[in-house]
Amino acid sequence: MSTSTTPRPSRRQLLRTAGGLAIGLPLLNACTGGGQSAQNAGADPTDASGPITVNWWDHFRPLTELFEKKLFVEYHGKHDNVTVKRRQLDPADLGQALQLARRSKQLPDVHSTAGLSGSVAALVTNGWFHPIGDFVDLGNSPMKDYLYDGIHRFDGKVYTFPVFSGRWHDSTTWVNSALAKQASLDPEQSPATWDEYRATVRTLDQKTPDSVHGLLLPMKDTDYLGGKLTAFAQMAGAPGQTDWKTGEIAVASEPFIQAMEFLLALKADGVLHPASSSLGPRDARARWAAGEAALFPWGPWFIGGLMVEESPAVKRGISAWQIPAPSTQRGTVYVAPAPGSFFVSDQAKNPKVAADVLFQMTTADFAAQLATRMDQPPILLDSVDKADVHPAYKKNVSFFQQDVRIGPVPEVRNGGVAKALAEMRDVHPSPGEIVQAVLTGSTKDYKAALQQYADKATKERKRAIDAAKKKGAEVSEDDWVFGNWQPGQDYTQASYK
Amino acid sequence: MTVTTEAPVRQKAPAPAPKRRTVWRRMRDDWWIYLFLLPTVVGYGLYTVYPLVASWWYAFLDWPGFADVGTFIGFANFELLWADDLFWNSFRNSLVFLAIAVPLRVGLALLLAIVLNRRSTPFRGLFRTLLFLPVVTTGAIVGVVFTLILDAGGPVNLALVKSALVDSPVDFLGSSGMSLYSVIGVWVWKWLGITLIYWLAALQTIPNELYEAARIDGAGNWKEFRYVTLPLLLPFLVVITLIDMVGALNVFDLVMTLTGGGPAFSSEVVEVYIYRTAFGATVPQLGYASAAAVLFGLLTMALAIAQALGIRAARRAMA
């Protein structure tokens, strides 16, 4: 039998020691820079000793290589204690994952906001993000001209900056050049008008083998269809879903009716791929790449996506067609200023390091590298000219410069608008859902459906404004009226003053 | 002669009535039973009871998904829901799904089980395996594969057009008149195998002597089925139908991958509606989505009670 000679601490001693540790550790932690009190913009953000992991979630699949093999590796090369761990998710999954992660306090340090389609202002109000303006000097970066109140800056604090240009739409027609040549068409020649477009698609449909169809118009994703309706309506003269001169919801206006008739005409021509009604855009891209259709309208990221998943389709030959207009007098596609692409989460363990990693994306060099991935065009659009990109990508960006203008954004002028937007509930059926119903034969009276949407959306906006006012927001319907907005011109930062 | 000496039998005193043990005492004496139960109780509590109770509470909150917490608004979510056409559309779709898919799955599986239970059926084992394979395949994968199979250029349409049954391909998933029924068809195909197994197990409880007796009495196949098999399967029918009904209310993966609830909400069932409201909206409405789940739960509960009462009344009438 052995007897231990080590004196055992009494229960009281044990409790006293544990209590001392419980109080002392956080204090020690604060002294050694574990908390945020030691942070300041001038010091190297990675001075803290010990390994730092920046968790990063985004939805930019074509940028996988750029991020994981270049940006993060280079950053690690400069700061060997910092490792960036990236997770790429599909946009809808990302939105869901972020909502769940936030509630369980597992948000990554940096994330994009795809899938969280609400206003960024609402997210800022609810404390989702950490401001980055104190950590990095955006005022002296090429980004300084692209920062807007209500989009990137809230209450004087900068939360994000645009990495991608806002000057784009997702209705460029991408052409299988080989099939166009087979139909004796010049793949580089965009049909200018809707009538010419229809005639060209018919030619492609007829002069290619029976297994090839003229156009793929995926109808499963209603946001995609809503984008087509709005872009075509804008080419027919609509300012967008809101008429900025009057502030009214313009979805039932004549240009929208014309756009709907154009889409219906394409269907009536019998040129659509028969599976269009059950496909989403990503499935449709795979079908287009397989040579089942000659044309497919989608966004500027099209070639970048193909390069990742279906690169032979690019090598086979691809061209871009400018968005057609009802007549030779072309309208303009209006878009909001480029939003912030990435945010530092308020749950970030090292917000300063996270902000510093983000800051590496503000350089002209990064913009040039971004352009080569042929995703959304970079915010510094000039870099596309110098970058080694596919000629069709370059051509498409030049189309955007001709066709796309920056429109007004109510929450830039009045931050209170964001509070009303946060109160707003979705109205159904939305324009995209109406297009889907019309093209799949569920509804015939699209004029009534669009009018009904406009009425319901107007009513809902009024209700949301009243709800926001009750919570102290200063907002009114006049916030959606921009008397100085001029069609065909950019609504610049100066225009808000 | 054998003499047996037996111990004198003592008159046993009546055993004292066992003392009723308190719950605390029982737990102390049989602690190991509760220890073994603990993982199940904790798991069930965390992943079934807590979400259930929480969703009831959330249903009374105005809770945009971006916010950390919601604000109590009483019955406002239920009032909005009551006036929401799309909720009732999805509710109707769920009921249609239930009303068509469950009898189809239960009936078809029974027929197949009877055929596959016969010793004379060739390749019984192979057919049972083939029919069971879709059950162990992930729902989302089945959905993706069937989008290709039911596609305008897919094998089903190819067969229909080539055999001149239709002039042009049928838009199984992209037509508002067909989408829900196509999903029902795929769901029945996917889950048929498991119901088949239930029926096979049930059929094997019927003693062969009964069939032999029926045959001696001159019963043919139909009479055997009508007067022997069917009456003895009735208790199983109630259980199998209940299991399949629960399954028919869990079709999220298939609907999302096949149609996404469209086109024009034609195949949107309540689960998809809840998901869309909770995660797909511009401003996610967690309270509203929870209210939809609660209301749907209450309504299906009412239907189940009505069904149970109906069955009881029918049994009494038959007795």
TrEMBL record, chain A:
Identification of the protein by name: Extracellular solute-binding protein
InterPro entries for the chain: Bact_solute-bd_prot1 (IPR050490), SBP (IPR006059), TAT_signal (IPR006311)
Lineage per the UniProt record: Bacteria, Bacillati, Actinomycetota, Actinomycetes, Propionibacteriales
Alphabetical list of Gene3D superfamilies matching this protein: Periplasmic binding protein-like II (3.40.190.10)
Any Pfam family the entry gives: SBP_bac_8
